[in-house]
Amino acid sequence: MPESPEVSVIVPVRDGADHLRRAVCSALASVHVGEVIVVDDGSTDGSWREAQSLCLDQRVKLHCHPGHRALGVSASRNLGITVSQCELVAFLDADDYYLPGRFEHAVPILAADSTIDGVHEAAGTWWATPALESWWLRHYNARVLNGLHRSVAPEDLFRSIVEGNNGWLHTSAITVRRRLLERTGPFDPELSMCQDSAMWLKMAACGKLVAGRLDEAVSVYVVHGDNRVLRQRALKQHFEDLKDEIVWRWLLARPGLHSAKVVQGCQLVRRRHARAADADSAWRSVATEYPAMLDDASFSRLKVALAEGTLPTPGAACAESLNPPGASKHNVGA
């Protein structure tokens, strides 16, 4: 049996002193965890002191941004990735926690097949109050498990996620090889929400992700009054509606990806905008929420193609026709 690789668990925290110990200890409980990287994102509530006390366990490593600044969850996860040492990487928000046996399926799957880049599983849900539980079940179709509803082949995962009819991947239930993060590049610090959603799309586009446990939770997503998903539900939905565009420029900049995956992006973006009642309004929304998109030459060409109805059809020449000028055909890095 191949030797089991160890996991680096990255825990960003901002003003999460009340929950941090539970999160970190839930990760340390796994024999597969080689280190827990806590990244403090400018906390003002005692999270730093709490994290320092957790460092009595030598597997806990504490980091912060220069000057203890708050740079956001993406920058914090990116810092954690940079300083981590293990072959496998997993993520855990400070107010969530792992369940016993979190990695007992994912790690053996990765150890047994070196061609697999990552394993996605299901996360459970815990509500702080009955009112929050009622709200969640109304808005999320009574689903308690967060993850894909059914397993799909790795080559179909990208389309399944973008189409949105088979569930979604969850931050605390994904385990990936470091090499996949080298291909995708970092979490996008320009996004104010759904940074993880954009990352999972990137992973599905350029990696081989397989399902682990989908019918049983490996972690718990805690829903409480402070969750940004509750305070900013409308904004989150806006980003979900634009998730294909968010990833589009990343795909175009990586012509080394299989052309079929780029074609999938073309077709899905085209269908979405064909359904839009006001395409100009949609693009104004993009400009407002994610202005860096419109500074990108690839997006400028995409907007013109959408307006003129000239998006390419599937075929071997598709990726070539969409490549940014001067792009390397084999560059799949950040």
UniProtKB/TrEMBL annotation:
Superkingdom of the source species: Bacteria
Listed InterPro entries: Glyco_trans_2-like, Glycosyltransf_2, Nucleotide-diphossugar_trans
GO molecular function: transferase activity
Domain Glycosyltransferase 2-like: start-end pairs: 8-116
UniProt keyword list: Transferase
Region annotation (Disordered) ranges: 315-334
Protein name as it appears in the record: Glycosyltransferase family 2 protein
Species classification: Bacteria, Pseudomonadati, Pseudomonadota, Gammaproteobacteria, Lysobacterales
